[in-house]
Design a protein that fits this description.
Rossmann fold, about 30% helix, Lys/N-term_MeTrsfase_sf, transferase, 19 helices, single chain, elongated, multifunctional enzyme, about 675 residues, nine-stranded mixed β-sheet
Length: about 675
């Protein structure tokens, strides 16, 4: 401890370094970055005939190792410590005759202009720029000016650094403004030999003649020594990219020593585009007792299934890890913008990276299994991409589910892990007049899904519950007669389509604020308008307010299935304005006295949810709730008249009767859809 300075400012003091090297003796002192780690980067920028200047050489072995391996021999080392210069002259004088050690201050060097092809700095800038005080920054400016002066045009300043943000920012801004090309290399660590948790970087500043005017800055980063450089658009972006790699190193160090109490999430980005390619979740299971064979496994989530509860929620992933029987499970989600070469290709791509996230106690040379559902990576085909001013960027994609089923999904990319709308696709059938494919013909590709929409199938459990709520309507008949239904929120249109097709006397009005969604529903989800189905492109708030003023008590059923565009609120469905008391009173006005208001509520904020429920109880005397298992959704059935109260058992009977009426001969019905199951689990609030 006595070797450390009293204050960071002493790092620039010759007296401090004299004392340091006398006390340390002949033992080499390496700040960070051993020669084997630095060698691949140095080989790119140091040529055998280059004249190299090492500033702040200390008693590091770096120059000696460069000399001994034949990388370069014409090396001049300078330092402000007389003690270390004499020590190094004694150590290398006779063994390395072409290399010299000089007592010199790098802030005032005696060399002529343009004397060197390379200036090498290993930790010297980090030691000098200990703070951002005016005096410190002035010294750094002087150091940079001297380095610039002694370097030839085309020469390289190589700075080995831990890349603290203020150090990197200062170096990049100074030299880029001088017209130099700036490239930052991340040095590959050697595992156990690494002394620092943080990764080591090498700044490579290549000198060019300064062009008058505003020449474009060239800023690049190389994540690993063999990678092609990635262009950065600004100093801030370059600093942020370095910080991302530092945070990753800290994370790997942390989870390699202790189990994760909370799930850790991170993105691995494509080297070319910089866009996310894999999303990883590190899940440690306390219920699994690690043995030699169950420490660690990688689970590849099939494409398109990352939104399912088991893979897309924290609780689901925890259950997956426990059932898989591994102490640490690393789940890997694949991004729709990327192309993957099958499970084997993904395994080759990830095998090195995932080992950096291995748990403590993993036996050496332990084989880590890659797992998936059915052993493949699934199928995802993007059918349509677009954006709208209201909904932002969105995609329509076909994905393969369990077995041979395919599903079409609408995804808003601002919330890419949530399926906005979903429909099952029918198995391919020959068109009229079209012959079946002969057996000797080439079979259709398994990646090519069918195209027709199965309108009889409700993919979303909350839609099933919303339809089941129609049995709350009064009347002796199981199947209601003429119905006036208002649906706010179109999406892909599966909910209003189902009501239209299975309730043959229902007249359905749909309100959708985004005209783009009407186009998507029509072109990609089989939605169509007609005598009993009309879409009104309007703000639901305005539409309901106008109805309440002009045509009260008009609807038997009002359904809200509308998402919030504001992701900062803890409620993603509906927008908060839709559950404010004055507006809910307008909804009540629109309903017939025996009608039912059905609300899809998605709220993660417990206080906000309780406030919404309290407001609903104030407006509607009768309130039922149906929680959707494994989802955040909760379906609320609200009625204006308390006299219509029914217990869950009675609701189950009515739902069973309604299902019997809906199941008509020749009409398809999903056997997994049991209306009684939807309503027997309701809670009366």
């Amino acid at each position: 401890m006595e070797l450390l300075p009293r204050s960071p400012g002493e790092f620039g003091s010759a007296r401090y370094w004299d004392r340091f090297f006398r006390q340390r003796g002949q033992r080499p002192f390496e700040w960070y970055g051993a020669f084997p780690e630095l060698c691949p980067v140095l080989h790119k920028y140091v040529r055998p005939r280059d004249k190299v200047l090492v500033v702040g050489c200390g008693n590091s072995e770096l120059s000696e190792q460069m000399y001994d391996v034949g990388m370069c021999e014409d090396i001049v080392n300078i330092d402000i410590s007389d003690a270390v210069i004499r020590q190094m002259q004694e150590r290398s004088g006779s063994m390395r005759p072409k290399m010299s050690y000089l007592l010199m201050d790098m802030l005032q060097m005696d060399f002529p202009d343009a004397h060197f092809q390379v200036v090498l700095d290993k930790g010297t800038l980090d030691a000098l720029l200990t703070d951002e005080e005016e005096a410190t920054v002035a010294k750094v400016d002087q150091m940079f000016a001297e380095i610039s002066r002694v370097l030839q045009v085309g020469g390289r300043y190589l700075c080995v650094s831990l890349a603290q943000a203020h150090v990197l920012k200062k170096a990049v801004e100074y030299f880029s403004q001088e017209g130099w090309v700036v490239r930052v290399h991340q040095v590959a660590s050697s595992g156990d030999k690494q002394q620092f948790v943080l990764p080591v970087f090498v700044y490579v500043m290549t000198k060019f003649r300064k062009i008058p005017g505003s020449a474009p800055q060239i800023l690049e980063i190389c994540p690993e020594e063999q990678d092609k450089p990635m262009r950065m658009e600004s100093t801030e972006r370059l600093v942020a990219a370095v910080q991302d790699r530092q945070h990753y190193a800290l994370l790997c160090n942390q989870i390699s020593k202790t189990p994760c109490r909370e799930q850790v999430s991170l993105d691995l980005c494509d080297k070319e585009s910089g866009k996310p390619r894999y999303t990883l979740h590190v899940v440690d299971s306390s219920s699994v007792r690690p043995s030699r064979d169950n420490h660690f496994a990688i689970f590849i989530i099939p494409q398109g299934r990352e939104t399912e509860w088991l893979f897309g929620t924290e609780e689901g992933r925890r259950q997956l890890a426990a059932s898989a029987g591994f102490g640490r499970l690393l789940t890997v989600a694949l991004h729709r913008e990327q192309h993957y070469e099958g499970m084997a290709g993904i395994q080759r791509e990830l095998s090195g990276k995932v080992m950096e996230l291995a748990p403590p106690g993993l036996p050496a040379r332990q084989q880590v299994p890659f797992l998936s559902v059915g052993g493949d990576i699934g199928v995802r085909t993007v059918r349509h991409c677009d954006s709208s001013p209201l909904s932002g960027e969105y995609v329509v994609e076909d994905v393969k589910g369990d077995g041979a089923c395919y599903f079409r999904r609408l995804i808003f990319l601002r919330n890419r892990n949530v399926v906005q709308s979903e429909a099952r696709l029918l198995a391919s059938t020959p068109l009229p007049g079209q012959k079946k494919r002969r057996k000797d013909k080439k079979k259709a590709s398994p990646a090519e899904p069918p195209g027709a929409i199965d309108k009889s199938y409700l993919c979303c459990e909350h839609h099933k519950a919303m339809v089941a709520g129609l049995c709350l309507l009064g009347g002796p008949d199981a199947l209601p007669g003429e119905l006036a239904v208002l649906v706010v929120g179109l999406g892909g249109g599966s909910l209003p389509l189902f009501v239209h097709d299975y309730f043959s006397q229902a007249h359905v009005a749909v309100v959708e604020i985004d005209p783009s969604m009407l186009e998507v529903a029509t072109h990609w989800f089989g939605f169509s308008q007609g005598d009993r189905m009309q879409v009104h492109v309007s703000d639901g708030l305005d539409y309901v307010a106008k109805l309440a003023a002009e045509a009260p008590a008009q609807y038997d059923v009002v359904m809200f299935d509308v998402d919030s565009k504001d992701l900062t609120v803890g409620m993603s469905c509906p927008p908060p304005a839709f559950v404010e008391k004055p507006f809910l009173q307008k909804v009540k006005t629109v309903l017939k006295p025996e009608g039912v208001f059905v609300l899809n509520l998605v709220c993660r904020d417990a206080r906000l949810k309780e406030s919404v429920l309290a407001t609903l109880r104030d407006v509607f005397p009768l309130l039922y709730a149906r929680r959707i298992e494994g989802e955040v959704n909760e379906i609320l059935f609200c009625q204006p008249c308390p006299e219509g109260r029914r217990d869950p058992a009675e609701l189950g009977l009515r739902a069973r009767a309604l299902e019997g009426a809906l199941r008509q001969p020749g009409r398809p019905w999903d056997s997994s859809y049991v209306l009684a199951d939807m309503l027997q689990a309701v809670t009366i609030l």
